[in-house]
Amino acid sequence: MQGPQTPARLAAVFNAMTDAGLSKSDIAKIAGVHRSQVSRWFTGETRPTYDTAMRLAAGITHDGHPELADEFVIAAGYGGPAALPPEPEPTPLEELLGSAEEAERIRAKIRARKGPQAERYIALIEEALSRPPEGADGSPGHGAQRDRRSG
């Protein structure tokens, strides 16, 4: 019997993500990788690193698919739901930039370019900038661990 992190199980989770309306491009954006990397995950050629898996799990949870996030973390071989890091509270742009004027200037730029979706983009920016850099939680940081061959 195969263990929890089999390529077939991971492929089934990715297929469930696409059934839920997430394209390979969407998955790549959420995970912060190139679409070709996602294709390699779908075929079982490689599997995501821990940092990438946690970023994708948090992103698909945020997009309303927590059940897929849990199954994905297990299928990728990184534990179960308890393995997911807690979501940080977003830090307002004013605090991140140290200036209310600069924050409003950036918000105005985003509103001008994104129109009705601007507030969602602003919230996503605040959320992304609030996260600790990769490796801050003791997990491998930038480039420290490449996607591993599954097997």
Describe this structure in words.
It is elongated, with a radius of gyration of 17 Å. The chain has two domains: about 100 residues, 434 Repressor (Amino-terminal Domain) (Orthogonal Bundle); about 40 residues, no CATH class. By secondary structure, it is mostly helical. About 55% of the residues lie in helices and about 5% in strands. The chain has a two-stranded antiparallel sheet. α4 packs antiparallel against α5.
Q: Helical region count?
A: 8
- Write down the overall geometry: elongated
Kindly name the structural category: mainly alpha
- State the low-pLDDT regions, or none: 136-151
Major sheet attributes: 2 strands, antiparallel
SSE string, helices as H and strands as E:
HHHEHHHHHE
Provide the gyration radius in Å. Answer: 17 Å
List the helices and strands and how they pair.
Blueprint (H helix, E strand, L loop, with lengths): L6 H13 L4 H8 L3 H9 L2 E2 L2 H13 L3 H10 L17 H5 L2 H15 L3 H13 L17 E2 L2
Antiparallel strand pairs: 1-2
For this entry, give a set of tags.
mainly alpha, 2 domains, two-stranded antiparallel ribbon, 57% helix
In short:
The protein is built from eight helices and two strands, in the order αααβαααααβ. It is mainly α and 151 residues long.
